[in-house]
Amino acid sequence: MNVERRPARRYNVKLEDLNQPPATPVPGQRCGLVAIVGRPNVGKSTLLNALVGQKVSITSRKAQTTRHRITGIRTLEDTQYIFVDTPGFQTRHSNALNRNLNRTVLSSVADVDVVLFVVEAGRYGMDDAKVLALLPEGKPVILVANKLDKLVRRAELAPWLKSMQERHPFAEFVPMTAKRPEEVRRLLEIVRPYLPEQGWWYDEDTLTDRSERFLVSEMIREKLFRLTGDELPYTSTVVIDKYEEQGRLRRIAATIIVERDAHKGMVIGDGGERLKRIGTEARQELEKLLDAKIFLELWVKVRSGWADDEERLRSYGYE
């Protein structure tokens, strides 16, 4: 999907900027929070990137890729959309990491103006139902039936939508494919009336409230998951050890944390080839994303049980 290039300088928003009250409303201006929720692997992060018009959230086929509350911002004409991408609600594991992810989901939907409940078009299972049951009453919920292009029998869509309407009083039904720009624009137009009339919270060219340092760790983790496939368990993470800015140069050292020695071998690969490829692909994408020269060093360390250790989770940046 081709996306509009945006100035890299607005990836790194100063903390003091985020604490400022909303600007004085301009007549006709709208601004509001939109939560993107759903079970793992329904395309929430892909949808967020499409709605923002730039990559701010990592994607992969591995479940539980998104682990943090990611905010993406899109300003179009008189409206500023503040999208909150959430981790997929976890129902199959009960370690500290998954409890942390579920708390993130619940806290993210508490104060938003509208919720995008994302499911795969034509599908609805127990995991989807558990997420839907968590949504607070009284908030407008838009059903986003994503991956419409993968629905084999389009004739089944109408009765499926009717069955979904019986499950919940959805404000809108939007069958779509997140990779199609015209359908993304249509979704933005549908969301707009649900946002309150008020001044924008961010500058017009801001893309996210996350720092460059955070985006770097996420990009490395994306390449880690994509290049190890199903070999590596989801309990691995990335910690930034050094992040130095020198003009358009970034000097970065990062550590990939895994739980077992065998996992360390999977990440490094024969002769270090896989680790080298992870670093190369992360560096190349980061240079495009941040419009900067990147020097990246990667290490791999074993930290057994980290995903079930609350103290280590906090030290690794999990809220």
TrEMBL record:
GO terms for biological process: ribosomal small subunit assembly. Pfam families: KH_2, MMR_HSR1. Residues 30-197 form the Era-type G domain. It is found in: Cytoplasm; Cell membrane. GTP binds at residues 38-45, 85-89, 146-149. Residues 85-88 are annotated as: G3. It is a peripheral membrane protein. Keywords: Cell membrane, Cytoplasm, GTP-binding, Membrane, Nucleotide-binding, Ribosome biogenesis, RNA-binding, rRNA-binding. The keyword Ribosomal protein does not apply. Residues 176-178 are annotated as: G5. Residues 38-45 are annotated as: G1. GO terms for molecular function: GTP binding; GTPase activity; ribosomal small subunit binding; small ribosomal subunit rRNA binding. GO terms for cellular component: cytosol; plasma membrane. Residues 220-304 form the KH type-2 domain. It comes from the Bacteria. Gene3D superfamilies: 3.30.300.20, P-loop containing nucleotide triphosphate hydrolases. Residues 64-68 are annotated as: G2. The keyword Membrane applies. PANTHER family: GTPASE ERA (PTHR42698), GTPASE ERA, MITOCHONDRIAL (PTHR42698:SF1). Belongs to the TRAFAC class TrmE-Era-EngA-EngB-Septin-like GTPase superfamily. Era GTPase family. An essential GTPase that binds both GDP and GTP, with rapid nucleotide exchange. Plays a role in 16S rRNA processing and 30S ribosomal subunit biogenesis and possibly also in cell cycle regulation and energy metabolism. This is GTPase Era. The gene is era.
